[in-house]
Design goal:
Elements (H helix, E strand, L loop, with lengths): L6 H10 L8 H15 L4 H11 L5 E2 H4 L8 E2 L2 E4 L5 E4 L7 H13 L3 H17 L9 H16 L6 H17 L3 H21 L5 H10 L1 H4 L3 H18 L10 H17 L3 H21 L2 H18 L2 H20 L12 H12 L3 H11 L4 H10 L11 E4 L5 E5 L6 H14 L1 H16 L3 H8 L7 H15 L3 H22 L5 E3 L5 E3 L2 H6 L8 H12 L6 H6 L10 H15 L6 H4 L4
Length: 603
Amino acid sequence: MALEITEQVEIAFQDADKADQRLDEFLVRDRLMQILHDLGKFTPEQRRGNFALVAALEFQPRWIYGEPIWDMHWQPLGSATDKAGKDHYFPDVALVDSEILGQWSSRAQTTRHPLLRARYADLCWEIARFRKDLAVRPDVVMAQSAIDGYVDAVEGTLFVDHIYAWNYVERAIELAASIGDQARVQRAKATLFKFRASCESRDPRYAFWRFHEIAWSQARVLGLKDTDRAEIVQALETQLALRSSIQDPQNFDPHLATTAAEALKLWREFAGQKTEADRAAHKAGEAFEAAAAQATGLTAITWLSDQLARYRQLGDLEGVARMEREIRARSEEAQGEMKRISVPLDVKPEELEAWADRVAGQTLEEGLTGLARVGLVHRNSTEHVVLESSNSPILDHITITVTGPDGHTDATIGSVEKDLDGRVVHHGTQLLSNRGPWLNLAWARVREKHGADLDSILTWLSGSPCYPPERLAFVREGLAAWLAGDFVKTIHILIPQVEAGLRDFLSAIGGVVTKPNRYGGSQRISLGEVLENKTFAQVPEAIRFHLQVLYNDPRGLNARNKLAHGVLPFGVLGRGLANLVVHSIILIGTFRPQSVDRQAPTA
């Protein structure tokens, strides 16, 4: 089928195609699309012609699109998935045929503006290489035309944004290297260095990092000389000095100072100048410390935590210690900036009563087993909630930082897509915090219905290999404290017994529970090692996940480790955590050696 360009669209295109003006390709596309919208209906030939002209302006370069759909430089503007699960792309490279490539080749030879010439030529070259099913061989003349167009546009300042200009130079270098055209490589290199100098003279706050990125990634292609590297290093040193001076608030930016220092590290270490690389890193670090001193608590701690990691990477223990002191000093201020968010839960009393009665069952054993079951936080259901609620484009991608009471970062959790496990553990923590009131209600009904007291609970627990007589003595003290409302004592006594009980159960089902120590003897493995033990995998996943979140994961409550290291906040040692710990005692009391899978509560 022939293609036909609508007259009004062609006129508008020719009006935009002027060789001496700055041009934004996408704005040209918008103008043409508005004309097409106003015109309305078209013949099949016109639709093909309009696609050939306008869709060429919709394809996005790889650096804008992100994760590529097609294995080439050009990517779609957007995509959608229909109900059947089929993906659709706009524009779709599958619609390009040899006739459209011919139209682009013609445009590349007749357009006046360097950027339009470069785009049509680049598309013609790249898509001919990608669409091997078409009877069109890639024409190296198109690649050459694209290179010349990109470089001409940068040299003639015919672009609308300097970031675009860096991208044009980079693409010119890539294309020249791909066809082995050394003359054009050297022309693009000269333009790269001249453009940097021009940007710096016009505004010292230019995007220096793009110059570094291009020069570093294309160093071998560009054939950099010592004089070239010296110019690059000097440009970065200038930026480091400019961005790290807090006395110059207009140019001070510790983030960009760090960017300059990290770039310098690559070039300095390449030249064998590690001392100079470390000096640059410390100078950027001083900028962050100065900025943190003037920032609010939460912001300061975030910056200082990042800087602590950098000093640790440098092996600067003095800097690490200084950051630790500063973080602790700002932690109280940071906590004062946080706000509690709560949501009311409206449940009818009769529904609560019915629920509690079902949990209590008909016997004390049913009641305690039911209590163990309802207190569990399950991985599968938690993951389902995380995925189902994953509908916020911003929140789902914001990194979550778990911070301890002393201001230090305990864990960093990535996006839902890249760190689903972290998100699930984090959400499991929130669910655990909601368990306390429900456990209170269920326990009250078990106690009321079956006359449960300290002795009857201990008698039931004694049937588990987790609770030999010597451990039951500790458990008795912990449970008695819980019943008396002494939650601090409850938590301190029972958490170690949970760990010891799980270790003994692992031994009972055939697992190894010791490891060599450095003194020629052996030591018991920790709770984390118990939970990760392959033999312990016989225990249902729901129970393992629950214990992980509650006791042993820095992305969760991490109660065991925080208690052991003396960093569990006193304010946490209340009824809520005590209920969760007592629930654990009852939960592992359901473990019986004859059949883990049958006796342990499951999801």
